[in-house]
Design a protein that fits this description.
By secondary structure, the protein is an alpha+beta fold. The protein has helices at about 1-30, 30-50, 70-75, 85-95, 100-105, 115-130, 150-205, 215-250, 265-280, 290-320, 330-410, 435-460, 465-475, 490-520; strands at about 55-65, 130-135, 140-145, 255-260, 325-330, 415-420. The protein is built from 14 helices and six strands. It has a four-stranded antiparallel β-sheet with strand order 2-3-1-6.
Length: about 525
């Protein structure tokens, strides 16, 4: 007995679920009409929901953006093809623009009833919500549109692709044309600025002749050259003054008139000079010294010449009347010194004149250098403005030609191009949830709902329905159960309930069969 009591909880836990199943079956028999009604109502509601569910037909097209072609490498550096960055965003802006949406409303047949502006805005919002533009690859744009009418879905999707390509190319062409026109206007402006800068620079140079490029270096070189010339002239003047002093000292020791002696007198004078030279040499050398011997020989020769000259003189005196031994004449050395002194004086005067002229020109060049330095800032500013405008003008000229080539490329659609990679096709089946999906889910839900309700009823009903509950609450085992007995009237009511339930359940497959038959016949 104790052993059975110890094993009792284990037996209860193992058979509790199995004990509920017969109770649930019994409850389903007792409430067969309600269960069948719940099943039929839910299944038919799901079928009606599937029928009433709006159909959505989706059409898709893909646009390929060709970035690289044969024109690109050939025109590299000369043309700038318009690129597309974040193509999905750009395509969305182009596709949902007012101009494109107006054409879409017309092609989709929404304008047939002449809707008001407010109604058109609502239609545009609906079309925008049903349109999906994505960028699955960097150079691919995908457009999808869903609509209850498959033909309209196809027409609108195809029109979207066509309008987007046309608008994108037109936008590219407009951008390149606007860029060219902007650069062209800048070229004209900078041409006017450059002309004005050239006129100002020319007027300033005409007003200031020294305002020329490199003039400062020329003036600096000229100043250096004048200074060198002045220093050279001053050194030459000092040299000439020194020569003048020397010549004047030599001239002071000479007589302008000299006496010309006889030949004998000249010999005596020369003899006196040699004797004086010999006496000088004998102070340092002996009689055998070569210089002393040479001078002695010269003295002897002159004494012999003097005796012969005296003898001739005696002979002339005996034959002719007496005359003076010499005559008066001008000194040639004195004349030569006077000529040199006059030449040096003239050269000194020329040097002084050169120094004065050089100093005057140096002062002029220094004053000129000051004027150039004073006008250098103004000249530098005018030159800088001219060079900046010239460089910008030349750069804008090149850019304008590049923009012209780019504009021609976009006008002829030779640069970045669009083409339909996958054209839109007529959708044959609706997308999203269809009648089959809703009907199938409705059947599953209709079958599961009565079972869930039965189990909830069993759990919430306080009545004792199983022997396990008696054993669990009383703590005693149940030895047996007495089945219920049904009378003839009860069995007749049960049969009617079963027939009613079968009729309710049968309406579901009949209704499903009729709907799907109409669906196959394309009448629904």
């Amino acid at each position: 007995m104790n052993q059975n009591a110890g094993d009792w909880p284990i037996v209860e836990s193992q058979s509790s679920l199995l004990a509920v199943l017969p109770v649930a079956l019994e409850e389903s028999r007792r409430r067969i009409v309600s269960v069948a009604a719940v099943f039929a109502v839910l299944a038919l509601c799901a079928l009606a929901l599937g029928i009433a569910l709006p159909k959505r037909y989706s059409a898709t097209t893909s646009i390929l953006v060709e970035q690289s072609n044969i024109i690109g490498p050939l025109m590299e550096g000369r043309a700038v093809p318009t690129g597309v960055v974040n193509r999905a965003s750009i395509a969305r802006q182009v596709a949902f623009s007012r101009k494109v949406m107006s054409d879409i409303l017309d092609s989709g047949g929404w304008l047939v009833d002449n809707p008001s502006a407010l109604e058109q805005e609502k239609l545009i919002e609906k079309i925008t919500d049903r349109t999906d533009i994505s960028n699955p690859r960097p150079n691919l744009i995908q457009i999808s549109y869903a609509d209850p009418d498959p033909k309209r879905a196809f027409t609108v999707t195809e029109k979207f692709a066509e309008l987007m390509i046309n608008e994108s190319l037109a936008t590219k062409e407009r951008e390149s044309r606007d860029a060219y026109e902007f650069i062209d206007s800048q070229v004209r402006q900078y041409h006017a600025k450059l002309t004005d800068a050239e006129a100002k620079l020319e007027a300033y140079r005409r007003k200031n002749p020294d305002a020329r490029p490199g003039i400062e270096a020329d003036v600096t070189a000229r100043i250096g050259e004048l200074r060198r010339q002045i220093e050279t002239s001053r050194m030459e003047l000092v040299d000439l003054q020194s020569q003048d002093s020397s010549l004047r000292s030599q001239l002071s020791g000479e007589s302008e008139i000299s006496m010309v002696h006889t030949r004998a007198g000249q010999f005596r004078a020369r003899l006196a000079e040699l004797q004086s030279e010999r006496d000088t040499l004998l102070l340092n050398y002996t009689d055998q010294h070569p210089d002393v011997v040479r001078v002695q020989h010269q003295i002897t020769d002159l004494q012999e010449d003097l005796r012969r000259e005296d003898a001739r003189a005696d002979t002339r005196l005996s034959e002719t009347p007496t005359a003076l031994d010499g005559s008066v004449s001008y000194n040639p050395l004195y004349g030569e010194l006077k000529s040199k002194l006059a030449d040096i004086s003239s050269r000194s005067a020329a040097a002084i004149s050169r120094i004065a002229a050089g100093e005057a020109m140096l002062a002029q060049e220094i004053e000129r250098s000051g004027r150039i330095a004073a006008s250098e800032s103004s000249l530098a500013e005018l030159t800088r403005d001219y060079e900046v405008n010239r460089d910008l003008y030349q750069d804008l000229l090149k850019r304008r030609e590049n923009a012209r080539v780019s504009m021609n490329l976009d006008a002829e659609r030779r640069g970045l191009s669009f083409r339909i990679q996958e054209p839109a096709t007529m959708p044959l089946r609706p997308s999203g949830l269809r009648l089959l999906h809703v009907a199938g889910a409705g059947l599953v839900f209709a079958m599961a709902t009565p079972l869930v309700l039965l189990f909830v009823l069993i759990k919430l009903d306080p009545r004792v329905r199983t022997t396990l509950r008696i054993e669990r609450e009383a703590g005693l085992p149940v030895l047996g159960t007495v089945p219920s007995y049904r009378t003839r009237e009860q069995r007749s009511r049960a049969t009617r309930r079963y027939a009613t339930a079968a009729l309710l359940v049968a309406t579901v497959p009949v209704a499903y069969f009729l709907v799907f038959a109409l669906k196959l016949a394309h009448t629904l």
